[in-house]
Amino acid sequence: MTKSWDMKGTWDSKGAWETQGRWEEDRRAGFSEAGLRRMREVLNGHVASGAVPGLVALVGRGDDVHVEAIGTLHAGGDEPMRRDTIFRMASLTKPVTAAGVMILVEECRVRLDDPVETWLPELADRRVLKSIDAPLEETVPAHRPITVRDLLTFTFGFGAVLAAPDTYPIQTAIHELGLDTTSPDFGPDEWIRRLGELPLMYQPGELW
Questions:
Q1: DSSP state of 55
Q2: Which of 13, 32, 49, 91 is catalytic?
Q3: pLDDT in the model for residue 63
Q4: How many CB atoms are located within 10 Å of the residue 175 CB?
Q5: pLDDT given for residue 29 in this prediction
Q6: φ, ψ of residue 31 in degrees (nearest 5)
Q7: 163-197 pLDDT per residue, tens
Q8: How many Cβ atoms are within 10 Å of 192's Cβ, its own excluded?
Q9: Would you put residue 112 in left (φ > 0), alpha (ψ -120 to 50) or beta?
Q10: Hey, is 48 helix, strand or coil?
Q11: pTM for the complete prediction?
């Protein structure tokens, strides 16, 4: 492969110098055998150690894509991991969602301090418990609306209660509404509607 060191470019809107020539060179370069071998060794090490029974990894560079499927679907099992194996993402949806939101922020389509009631009207005009152990009727108005920043930083005033079940009335209400399960029988629209029936536990932005 012939390397191109053409450093022609342009200033982007943020004042950074974009070197299209170098990018084209990198894109054509693809992957090195040594790099892929090292990646495979590291991934195999995690499976061999028992940290995970198996994994699927994908890396892309330009038009080149490389996939590794290593190990088995279950610990002690013999069914191999496949490229199209479906994984439960669980809380990994949080950083994925945050990255998507920050792209919208960068594009000036959303601001971190925008009230979320624009998109989630169920979270408008919130009321807040006077204390975590108060009956659901003992509330005060929220000091301010819930913002995008509050949701991204888990400070919008609602969340898991680290106490024994039914210690507080709000816990009982969460359970009765089916908001404490990762596999509810209803969809996200119904989930947010039910959440809107409950008061917040703390003022927006007050506590993680």
A1: E
A2: 91
A3: 85
A4: 13
A5: 57
A6: -115, 150
A7: 999 999 999 999 999 999 877 889 999 999 999 99
A8: 14
A9: alpha
A10: helix
A11: 0.67
